[in-house]
Amino acid sequence: LNRLREKKFILQWQYKRMIPDVTKCELAHLYFNPKTHKDGIPVRPIENTILAPTTNISNFLDEIIRPIFDNKCSTTSIIDGVSLIKDLNRYTKRGLLKSTTLFCTFDIRNLYTMLPQEEALNILIEFLHVHGYNKVKCIPLEAIRKLASIVLKENVFVYDKKIYRQVLGGAMGSSFTLTLANIFMWKWQKEFVRRQDMTGEFYGRYIDDIFMTWNKSEKALQDILDEANTWHPNIKLEYKISQSLPFLDVLLTNNHGILSTSVYHKPSAEPSVVPFISDHPPHTFINIIKTGLTRAVRYSSTFEIFNNERLYVKLTLLYNRQVLGGAMGSSFTLTLANIFMWKWQKEFVRRQDMTGEFYGRYIDDIFMTWNKSEKALQDILDEANTWHPNIKLEYKISRSLPFLDVFLTNNHGILSTSVYHKPSAEPSVVPFISDHPSHTFANIIKTGLTRAVRYSSTFEIFNNERLYVKLTLLYNGYPSSLIETQFRRFFSEYISSSSFLPYMDDEKQFLILRNTLLKQPTHRQSQVSMSATKADIHNDQADGVHTVFEKTADEKGKQKHDFPDKLIVHYTHEKRFQSTKRDIHRVYDDVFRNTPKADVKLIVGNKNRRDAKNELIRKRPKQSTLRNKPMKSMSIQKMQKTINYPSIMCIHFSF
Fold first, then answer.
1. In sequence order, which residues have a C-beta less than 8 Å from that of residue 79 and are 6 or more positions away?
2. Alpha carbon distance, N-terminus to C-terminus of the chain
3. Which of 89, 164, 444, 629 sees the fewest Cβ atoms within 10 Å?
4. Torsion sign across C-alpha atoms 178, 179, 180, 185
5. What is the pLDDT of residues 288-320, one digit of tens each?
């Protein structure tokens, strides 16, 4: 560079552009990328030349010579799949695409690494001469050749702790290598281009991949390709001939003389895109969707092909995590779903209001009444299935249906309601042999009776439900004495004249009790009402003014947990282990009597038996996955001091 500058072959600004920064220079290093789309998975050698001494020269030469190549060789260059489709459409309009037309694709094996260096330099100068250039950006061709020679021949790299110099080909990580390879192929392909131009056939090249059409016999094409394999010792072709072939990311098919194009999905790359769970900015995901749809429109030659590609794009996005819907574990998702349904159901609500019919929704479950023909209702529901592509209904129509936990029946114009017991949940409640506090069992009994009173429309239905509650409790080990005590307490709380019996024998008393409980809001109704009253509270409050409804996370973290030492034992619950809890306590007392462990409180609990439902639920990942690992420098003693929890021992075992 210094000598070229001294002889004034290059200008001062050009010299500054190309001179390397010796304080930052380092040798290039070699690594390999597997070509997973090819048989045998060969590797592609890549050189990292970002800080190499010749990088600035390579970038500068590429900047001044590539525009010349792009301009002079545009007729035989394929830029991307879109440009290829445009070229083939022009070929088709000229009437050259026939039902017998063949497509051929071939690629040059290892073009970058097989470039003969001295010959490539000669072809570079020939290319510039042929197109009328004696200088490029005031640099004479002699100096251009010298600069290109530096890029090719002074390419030194490191591999496996050894230093090498490349003597054949160019560095695949060097920007000028691509331009030099294109110019080398300009020379090599001249005979191909001449023959194709004579017959009006199409020929196009994208770096080392070539696409061409053919209207003669397949044997004649094979002979030409085999002949081309002898034109240069370093250039070897691998070709495919067919009426349907992929090229880049487009699939081209000669469908009886009609050009059919669609998106080609490489098996090695699809259906992977940037996962939605990554930390990329939001516009990245939007751009991915937009790019996929844009490519689908550009490449699809028919509406049917486009629809298939649109579906493929959607499935690919869903495969790469959530781009549709919201996280089911996110609290705001429920609110957003409700608001979305508010919009969707407007037409339903309008129609029901016009006829005075009932319409109600609980998240994604809807209940409505109907006084016209069943066929008319089916037609409306089928129509509703077309209102939004993502909203699909599954409906049941009858005079007797369950909804949530209530069973509703139209009994000849009289509304009959009762508790609905889902087969998957009943008749299981918290077993009495568990170590839950005593109020838990009392609350279970009270909840069952309260629901029975509220949901039972007649005294007979209530008595059947009361009997069901009692049998369920007995099945789960509740003592009869506890059941009767809690039953009497429940009835006496609402009816002062209730008898000492654990049930009611007077229908009038039942109706009074039911009327009383129906007026009382349920826990969920109270929550919704409280939430609704907060809607406009401090809606326009000033900055810095905030009403605190609960303790902050820091305050919660500072709360002290004053628990005594405990030993917790869990076993898998089964009815045949009714005495297990008592047996474990007895063994513990016998073994640890008169020892310090006798002061440790023993808590015996039980785990639910494994069933299909539990086994199919995705289990929580390990804490090492969910949390950052502690620093290695932190000793176990420091961690124990930092995490100041009471000494609780946990044992899990199954019989």
1. 206
2. 83
3. 629
4. positive
5. 888 889 999 999 999 999 999 998 888 888 877
